[in-house]
């Protein structure tokens, strides 16, 4: 190993030869260290990372291995969200701890600290957000155990904090939605965007990806062929989230007529015209404005998708039919809504009673 001082810059440069875990000879060259100690510390952690030694720090494992291993297997938005949560809520606590020495007691202390933390508005984190962070940490240790010979998983015997999203599905009834949308009538692009979300149940990215050619006004259908996501401030057109997300949706007459009027109002609208050139921020702000004007409880933009599913359940459609319409990738995703069906079962009984009375 050679750590030498750059007299001109006043910093230290690291130069060392090493053999990676594949047995390949490599060279590490890095400069700009403020002190020799800093250079040596970097070398130690780097070499531990290369040899898969679980005495490497948590920070080294995540940055040198975990991110690289999972990057190609998940969507950009999922990756960015996971990265933000790990950097903000996990890394500050575990960064300097060695992977092999992190204990269940450390996990408990971390959980208790996070449960008492508040966001920028002074509110404690929601149960679903806490569960997401917990899942991120569990995934890191599971990955280390499965692929890097970590001997034990410290999160395994610790009760997960928070609650799954399926336990906290927020949605509007049709009547609540009508109150909200009446308040958006003076903001046309958002009015039509929210109408599309509520009456079709499509995802936010699918809404942004809609083009004029995806609408068939004669057949009253809307086709999902792409999604648009914002990654590092740049809009990227991508394939739908899953194979099942490619679908053609029948739309009610009301929405069909509205979208036809909307397309006619767009200057120079042709087949390639994107109908809703919006972004998450502007759509979420419009939602907040509408909730403020209408007095409706605030749900998320994704809550429109939940609202559509709840509405279809209230009309008597089964979960399989609904899953096909909204493009769920598997049956279990639709079954999250199973708890919304008892009301429908009461309606079935009432209709039977009514039929018996008339016979």
CATH architecture of the largest domain: Orthogonal Bundle
User: What's the pLDDT, averaged over the residues?
Assistant: 85
Question: What sort of overall outline do the alpha carbons produce when their principal axes are compared?
Answer: elongated
Amino- and carboxy-terminal Cα gap: 94 Å
Point out poorly predicted stretches: none
Q: What is the CATH class of the largest domain?
A: Mainly Alpha
Structural class: mainly alpha
Considering the protein shown, what is the CATH homologous superfamily of the largest domain? Answer: Intergrase catalytic core
Put simply, the count of helices is 14
Question: What is the spatial order of strands in the main beta sheet?
Answer: 1-2-3
CATH topology of the largest domain: hpI Integrase, Chain A
What string gives the helices and strands in order?
EEEHHHHHHHHEEEEEHHHHHH
How many runs of DSSP E, i.e. beta strands?
8
């Amino acid at each position: 190993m050679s750590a030498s001082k750059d007299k001109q810059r006043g910093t230290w440069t690291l130069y060392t030869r090493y053999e990676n875990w594949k047995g390949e000879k490599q060279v590490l060259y890095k400069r700009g260290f403020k002190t020799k100690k800093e250079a040596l510390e970097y070398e130690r952690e780097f070499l531990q990372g290369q040899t898969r030694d679980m005495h490497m720090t948590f920070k080294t494992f995540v940055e040198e291995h975990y991110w690289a291993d999972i990057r190609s297997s998940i969507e950009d938005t999922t990756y960015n969200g996971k990265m933000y949560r790990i950097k903000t809520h996990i890394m500050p606590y575990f960064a300097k701890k060695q992977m092999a020495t992190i204990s269940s007691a450390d996990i408990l202390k971390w959980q208790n600290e996070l449960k008492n933390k508040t966001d920028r508005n002074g509110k404690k984190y929601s149960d679903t957000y806490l569960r997401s962070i917990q899942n991120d940490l569990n995934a890191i240790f599971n990955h280390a155990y499965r692929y890097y010979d970590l001997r034990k998983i410290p999160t395994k015997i610790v009760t997960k904090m928070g609650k799954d999203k399926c336990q906290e599905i927020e949605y509007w009834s049709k009547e609540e939605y009508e109150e909200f949308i009446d308040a958006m009538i003076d903001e046309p692009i958002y009015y039509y965007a929210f109408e599309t979300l509520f009456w079709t149940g499509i995802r936010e990215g699918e809404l942004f990806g809609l083009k004029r050619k995806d609408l068939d006004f004669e057949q009253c259908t809307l086709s999902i062929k792409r999604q648009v996501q914002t990654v590092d401030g740049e809009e990227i057109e991508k394939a739908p989230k899953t194979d099942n997300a490619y679908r053609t949706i029948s739309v009610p007459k009301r929405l069909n007529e509205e979208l036809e009027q909307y397309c006619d109002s767009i200057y120079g609208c042709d087949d390639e015209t994107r109908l809703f050139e919006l972004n998450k921020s502007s759509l979420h702000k419009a939602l907040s404005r509408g909730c403020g004007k209408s007095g409706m409880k605030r749900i998320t933009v994704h809550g429109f998708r939940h609202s559509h599913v709840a509405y279809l359940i209230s009309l008597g459609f089964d979960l399989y039919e609904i899953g096909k319409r909204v493009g769920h990738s598997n049956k279990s995703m639709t079954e999250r809504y199973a708890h919304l069906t008892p009301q429908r079962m009461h309606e079935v009984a009432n209709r039977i009673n009514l039929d018996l009375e008339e016979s």
